[in-house]
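Try it yourself: sequence plus iron/sulfur cluster, in.
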Amino acid sequence: MADEFPFEISPMFEGERIRKEGMHVELAGPKSKGFELVRAADMNDVEDGRFTLIGPDLSDMEEGSRYPFAMIYKIAGELVETDLESIVERRNHEFQNYIQGMMHLNQRDDVWIRVGKEAVSKGLNSFEHIAKAVMMLFKNELPFIEKVEAIYITDMSEIEKEIDNTRAVYKARDERTRGLHDEDVDTFYGCTLCASFAPTNVCVVTPDRISLCGAINWFDGRAAAKVDPEGPQFAIPKGELIDDASGEYSGVNEFAKKLSSGEYDRIKLHSFFEFPHTSCGCFEVVGFYIPEVDGIGWVDRDFAGTAPNGLQFSTMAGQTGGGKQVVGFLGIGVNYFRSPKFIQSDGGWNRVVWMPRMLKEKIFQDIPEDIRAKIATEDDAKDIESLKSFLTAKNHPILERWVEEEAEEEAEEEVPAKAQPATQRGFAAPQMMQMPANFMPSMPMMGGGSGGVRIILKNAKVTVEKITILKED
Ligand code: SF4
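Structure, out:
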């Protein structure tokens, strides 16, 4: 089908990773600027198949360098409506990854693309090849698109001119779900676009829970399912409400079982700890449990530093992704912070103790006023000790949980020592938590204070050849 292109096009290239050594150029990404945007347009305003490039082409780019990069697609068709823009935009991610030698990560103004050296050596020397391949796939795979044209920009000043308008479009899309809630609808929407690299992922999009990639809201899911019911976005009848606080529905559970091939049969949409939503790897933000303060921190892709637990975003993303229910970590879209049901079964905002300053500024108006000043950033807390001091000084509501924990500990101390369970004391993880095997070493627990020896293991590997257990006299 793609003889006209100097590369193979196939879903089998999704998941292809292009490392720094193998890349010809890097486009957009965390160290540059860029975006992707799809706009619905009138039939007369779209010249089908047309490609425009503003700025240098691939052949003018220096090997091993980084460039800004934006992609704008105008689509038209009788069934094309504004609600479909996000869905088509998300398919740009998928279709660019079908191209051998291309790697497209993230979405919206977080896009990060690499073109491999090998692809360039085989003749991929112009963005026109890429744009034409993507336009061909748009029309083949999304028959409601009758006309499409592409404008790619590699000139920084042009991108800077466009980026504010583009962000305003994203914002307007996100605002649409504000007045609509899970209880107002009978149907949620599922998405399987990420199933190729996270086969057990179950993505459920509801009015109160935007997709974890941040690119698909409930209206987008509805529009996509309407025009292409056999496509990757589909309706999930809600079924019975099982638990309001955690957002558990029989219809979601049925789909969870089906989509994960039986691996999961329960998903609680607004829970952090118990049967949480799966995380494929496209999340914009990772939440991480901090057992030492019994609170939850959040870190986004743009934060290059280290969170108070000693880990960076990339390390935690590695723990979180893969389409699993990883208790203790949760991937979300930024807009979920704006949901009135945000992790409501685990305390909502009262459980949030830390986030990077930039992320906090981005969502500042959406944080309940009484807690805004009580959430630490990297300026307030760089490690667990400084986080504890900050939370104490600010009288963060999490302190109430510490008092409860202490009361429980005191009650336990009254039980004779031999009757105590052999668990470490301190701020224990909630009872239902089953940490992954590699979870605990990177999150040292606080010592108990009952004497003896405290051992803190940080990113340690412990090999034990033999254990001898002796009966106590
Ligand atoms: S993260 Fe979820 S909603 Fe977004 S593209 Fe992947 S499967 Fe679809």
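One thing you can check immediately is this: Confidence is low (pLDDT under 50) at residues 417-453.
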